[in-house]
Amino acid sequence: MTPMPPATPAADVEALIEQVRLGGYGVLPDALSPEEVAGVNAEAIRICRGELGEIGHAPAAGRDDSDADVLRRYLCVHHPHKLSGLVRRSVAHPRIVDTLVRVVGPNVKSMQSMLFIKSEGRPGQPWHQDEFFIPTRDRSLFAVWIALDDATVENGCLWVLPGSHRRGVLYPDREQDDARFDCSIEAYDFPYRDEDAIPVEVPAGSAVVFNGYLLHRSLPNTGRHGFRRALVHHYMSAESPLCWRVPPGTAPARWDYRDIVLVAGEDPYAYKGTADLTRAYVRPDKDGGCDR
Q1: pLDDT reported for residue 10
Q2: DSSP states of 143-184
Q3: Are 59 and 97 in contact (CB under 8 A)?
Q4: How does pLDDT run across 190-228, given as a tens digit for each residue?
Q5: Distance between CA 139 and CA 167 in Å, rounded?
Q6: Are 138 and 239 in contact (CB under 8 A)?
Q7: pTM here?
Q8: How many whole angstroms separate alpha carbon 44 and alpha carbon 116?
Q9: What is the mean pLDDT of residues 97-118?
Q10: Residue 81 pLDDT > 70, yes or no?
């Protein structure tokens, strides 16, 4: 990683924390420097070419394909930190961690990374709450969504429903066949309208920090050329066991998912050790068929 950017002024940090508290999200400017963004984008090409290791369900690519053609075959790679030391280091980037300890607490762990590569015409994701997918006992889940390109309405930036996290309620979910979205389920029957949503347009290097209960979505990349790449990490309090991916026959109350990265403070459950449980894989999309 290149040298860290200057610290955010205290007043800006306080404003960010207050926006996260009230609105459920906030923008951390310059989370990654331009040099760091370029490094991650270069690493993404190596990941998608298979140079750093096997990716489950990866699309076939020819040796003579251009870098852009290789990237266009992918929509999202889950757990790229399992392949790339650079991505793994970004999980614990000091600028990001400094914000996390303010919104999550002094002890913070990460359990997931995702590399989104949304080229022109590729779909977004419907309304959803991250806590639906990664259930935490103490409601401490947060996402850090790092723009690797300027994220705009045209190329499929995030949209959020401000304040939708406050009730701490998980809304009903259903499968959907909307051509605008990938295979993800959609949340519905919530007391908000699409008209209430706002786009979160951010320049490359900025990070959107948001609560696990916040309703959010993204729309397709309608630009004529180019990508909307993003690197996303999920975090929670290390003080809470993680009841995620519970093995069959295991009581959820006794399970603690231990394929984690501690990024701040202490892990009260360090005596359990850590485990290597996941591998990088490609997110299903409708072009490749949905696993339903």
Answers
A1: 61
A2: EEEEESS-B-TTTT-EEE-TTTTTT--PPPEE----TTB-S-
A3: no
A4: 999 999 999 999 999 999 999 999 999 999 999 999 999
A5: 11
A6: yes
A7: 0.95
A8: 10
A9: 97
A10: yes
- Which token pair is 91? 């999980």
DSSP string, 1-13: -PPPPPPPPHHHH
CB 151 within 8 A of CB 202: yes
pLDDT confidence tier of residue 5, bands split at 50, 70 and 90 = very low
The percent of residues in the chain predicted with pLDDT above 70, rounded, is 96
Q: Using alpha carbons, select from 272, 267, 276 the residue that is nearest to residue 82.
A: 276
265: which DSSP letter?
Answer: S
Q: Is 202 helix (H, G, I), strand (E, B) or coil?
A: strand
**289: pLDDT confidence band, cut at 50, 70 and 90?**
confident
Specify the DSSP element, H or E, that contains 101: helix 94-103
CA distance linking residue 146 with residue 96, whole number of Å: 10
Give the tokens for residue 6: 């200057």
Q: Going by C-beta distance under 8 Å and a sequence separation of 6 or more, which residues neighbour residue 9?
A: none
DSSP string, 30-71: TSS-HHHHHHHHHHHHHHHTTTTS--BTPPP--TT--HHHHH
Residue with tokens 């007391």: 191
Q: Are the beta carbons of 193 and 184 closer than 8 angstroms?
A: no
How far, rounded to the nearest angstrom, does the alpha carbon of residue 166 sit from its chain's CA centroid? 20
The amino acid present at 12, given as its one-letter code, is: D
